[in-house]
Specification:
The protein has 95 residues and is mainly β. It contains two helices and five strands.
Length: 95
C-alpha cells in the first residue's frame, strides 16, 4: 500500500505481510528514531483485541479481507487453534 492509502486506511483492519499478523491501523506518518535520528514513513498497527502496537513500512501492509485467516489458522477467542479450543477441560482437584 502507498503512503496515501495508508493514511486513508486509518481505523481499518490490515494484515502485516512480513509476519501475517492482523490488526487495526492506528496511525501512519513520518517517524524519527530516537537512537538513529533517521526519519522514515511507518504504519502503526495494534492487535484487534488489544496488546502491544507494532510498526511496519506501508509497502508491507494490505487491507485485511474478512474471512481470511493468515497462514490457514482459525482464530478463536483465546487465540488458539480450533483443535486446542475443543479439547475437553478437566477439573482441577482440590487438596
Amino acid at each position: 500500500m502507498t503512503e496515501e492509502e495508508a493514511v486513508e486506511a486509518i481505523g481499518d483492519a490490515v494484515e502485516d505481510l512480513t509476519t501475517g499478523r492482523v490488526g487495526v491501523l492506528t496511525d501512519a506518518g513520518p517517524y524519527t528514531s530516537p537512537t538513529t535520528r533517521r526519519t522514515t514513513f511507518l504504519v502503526f498497527i495494534r492487535p484487534e483485541r488489544g496488546g502491544v502496537e507494532w510498526t511496519v513500512e506501508p509497502e508491507q501492509v494490505r487491507r485485511h479481507t474478512p474471512g481470511h485467516a493468515p497462514h490457514g489458522r482459525v482464530p478463536t477467542a483465546r487465540g488458539t487453534s480450533r483443535a486446542l479450543a475443543a479439547a475437553p477441560r478437566r477439573p482441577i482437584p482440590y487438596h
